[in-house]
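Work Package 4 report. The design task specified in the project plan requires that, given a folded chain encoded as structure tokens, an amino acid be chosen for each position. We show below one input record used in the internal validation round.
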């Protein structure tokens, strides 16, 4: 496992079969959404990983810009036959995915352990 801190709010952990991207804040500013989008693009271009775990467990609120980044990443990952798993603990954050019915499309888990099982 190799952990790289992309900035104050994003940490990346490289595992052999998947990549974990952790958002390290309770609210994500627009600049972090933009940086996450750029990070996904960089990872897709490198083509080292097809499976991604996005850990949003520290988030208490999610803005539409971050949801847009997640949906765009999901599309790209799906086109390369990869998987995207999300870890969400906050009911308010989960509700945003449920209202938009993204909870029916995305794999959402309450903890990292269950999300990791999605890649086995």
């Amino acid at each position: 496992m190799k952990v790289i801190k992309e900035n104050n709010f994003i940490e990346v952990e490289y595992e052999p079969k998947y990549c974990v991207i952790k958002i390290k804040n309770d609210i994500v500013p627009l600049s972090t959404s933009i940086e996450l989008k750029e990070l996904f693009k960089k990872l897709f271009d490198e083509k080292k990983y097809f499976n991604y775990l996005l850990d949003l467990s520290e988030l208490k609120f999610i803005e539409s810009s971050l949801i847009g980044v997640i949906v765009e990443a999901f599309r790209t990952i799906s086109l390369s036959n990869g998987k995207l798993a999300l870890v969400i603990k906050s009911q308010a954050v989960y509700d945003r995915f449920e209202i938009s019915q993204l909870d029916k499309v995305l794999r959402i888990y309450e903890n990292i352990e269950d999300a990791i099982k999605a890649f086995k």
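The two ends are 17 Å apart (CA to CA). Validation will be extended to a larger panel in the next phase.
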